[in-house]
């Protein structure tokens, strides 16, 4: 049953009971019983009548009953219906707005430091874990160099035309020599002039194939493994995660799920790939439970919004992750406001 047809099937009484169940569950985290609802409903109904309606809602797949004698709680399908068709979004409070504004008020030249403050504030305000995906650095490359740090450790250094420098540690292919490292650097520098990192990545494979006779096998392997870091770094520095401890406060009763979620949060590369998918849509997006394959085992929810640069191009994302009983009506506008503010601040910066 799709969301539109499910919502259409609910009469006024069923709709109010369903809404009260969801809102009470999101507030308390506990299944909601019929007697609790009878005291909150605008229409005076008996507990038996409320139970019958709740049973119908359960048959529709909108409610679950965790135990035979317990109350009901919204299913994942029910939460999706509520979020898409019934949720009332609260305005961002003056206190929350001031806390977010304050993080961006300091004119720090380092974008990473600024966004780290944003992530910390977002986790504190929402009491969830915050995710901030920093913009990719798209300035043209000035110089690339490979530096040996030992038999199994090397550093690739990228210097951009705007003065920005990035260093990445990696394990080079076996047998690398100073000569092969110089050759790999020369090969890339000959290609890189005037190109951004993403443009360069798109040409490396073709150039290696076309110039295989000129390029030493060891140097070719080094080029491929070194540049692959920008696609497959296990601890991607573009991603900032703050507020993991907040999740323990919210879900103490289900530590196994929290451990799974913590493991997911450590796999930053996977989260970066997921957030880059989220960047494809404009505005706030909500992923509940198994809708988000990355966090499906932990039964979590993610509220995420992309932010744009001065050219109206999506360059990053901010989000909040927590249990599925997030206060969506409060968190959605906070994430939206933060994303828009980050976009405006970064748009006013050079480089």
TrEMBL record:
Alphabetized UniProt keyword annotations: Repressor, Stress response, Transcription, Transcription regulation
GO BP: any one term: negative regulation of DNA-templated transcription
Residues of the signal peptide: none
Domain named Winged helix-turn-helix transcription repressor HrcA DNA-binding: residues: 10-65
Matching Gene3D superfamilies: 3.30.450.40, Heat-inducible transcription repressor hrca homolog, domain 3, Winged helix-like DNA-binding domain superfamily/Winged helix DNA-binding domain
GO function terms (MF aspect): DNA binding
Keyword NAD applies: no
Keyword Transit peptide among UniProt keywords: no
Domain called Heat-inducible transcription repressor HrcA C-terminal: residue spans: 114-332
Family indicated by similarity: Belongs to the HrcA family.
Known function: Negative regulator of class I heat shock genes (grpE-dnaK-dnaJ and groELS operons). Prevents heat-shock induction of these operons.
Official protein name in the record: Heat-inducible transcription repressor HrcA
Organism of this sequence: Paracoccus subflavus
């Amino acid at each position: 049953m799709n969301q539109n047809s499910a919502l259409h099937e609910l009469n006024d009484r069923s709709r109010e009971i369903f809404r009260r169940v969801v809102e009470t569950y999101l507030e308390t985290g506990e299944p909601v019983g019929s007697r609790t609802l009878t005291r909150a409903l605008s229409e005076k109904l008996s507990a038996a009548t409320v139970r019958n309606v709740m049973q119908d809602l359960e048959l529709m797949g909108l409610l679950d009953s965790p135990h035979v004698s317990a109350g009901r709680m919204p299913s994942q399908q029910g939460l999706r219906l509520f979020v898409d068709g019934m949720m009332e979004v609260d305005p961002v409070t003056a206190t929350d707005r001031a806390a977010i504004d304050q993080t961006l008020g300091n004119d720090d030249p380092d974008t990473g430091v600024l966004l780290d403050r944003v992530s910390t504030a977002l986790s504190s305000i929402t009491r969830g874990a915050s995710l901030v995906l920093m913009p990719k650095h798209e300035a043209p490359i000035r110089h690339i160099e490979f530096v040996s740090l030992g038999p199994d450790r090397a550093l690739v250094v990228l210097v951009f035309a705007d003065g920005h420098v990035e260093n990445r540690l990696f394990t080079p292919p076996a047998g690398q020599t100073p000569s092969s490292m110089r050759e790999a650097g020369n090969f890339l520098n000959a290609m890189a002039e005037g190109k951004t990192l993403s443009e360069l990545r798109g040409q490396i494979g073709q150039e290696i194939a076309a110039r295989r006779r000129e390029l030493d096998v060891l140097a070719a392997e080094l080029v491929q493994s070194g540049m692959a870091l920008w696609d497959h770094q296990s601890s991607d520095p573009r991603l900032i995660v703050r507020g993991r401890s907040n999740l323990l406060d919210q879900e103490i009763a289900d530590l196994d799920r929290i451990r799974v979620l913590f493991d997911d949060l450590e796999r930053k590369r996977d989260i970066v790939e997921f957030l880059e998918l989220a960047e494809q849509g404009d505005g706030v997006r909500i992923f509940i439970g198994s809708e988000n394959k990355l966090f499906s085992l932990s039964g979590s929810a993610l509220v995420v919004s992309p932010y744009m640069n001065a050219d109206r191009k999506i360059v990053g994302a901010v989000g909040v992750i927590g249990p599925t009983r997030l206060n969506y009506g409060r968190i959605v506008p906070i994430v939206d406001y933060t994303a828009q503010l980050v976009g405006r601040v970064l748009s006013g910066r050079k480089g």
